[in-house]
Amino acid sequence: MSVGTAALYAxxxxxxxxxxxxxxxxxxxxxxxxxxxxxxxxxxxxxxAKQDLKAAGHDTKDAAKDTGHxxxxxxxxxxxxxxxxxxxxxxxTEQDTKRAAHATAHGTKKVWNKTKSTTKGAVxxxxxxxxxxxx
Length: 135
Prior knowledge:
It contains 3 helices and no strands.
């Protein structure tokens, strides 16, 4: 036997190992029995399954209600946001349409005035050309 192996089988070491094992098993017994006593036995445990199903049904009902309320709230919020967005777009479109109409009217008047003066000049030039004899 080597020195390390001999130390494992020494009487003192074996005594310590037995003592630790006994203490560990004793602690396990105490804790196990304490857990067993902490849960009271109920003769109506057969009815608890029925009660559990009822509770689960009520929980499901409450969850469905909560979901329905959340969906309604989200839908109303989305509808209001859409309404506000539509109003904003309509106002902007109206303003832009008025600006475009004003710019178109201004451009039309400007072109009309230029065309009018050009036309008068052409008419006058034609008259003068018609009155002068050709050489």
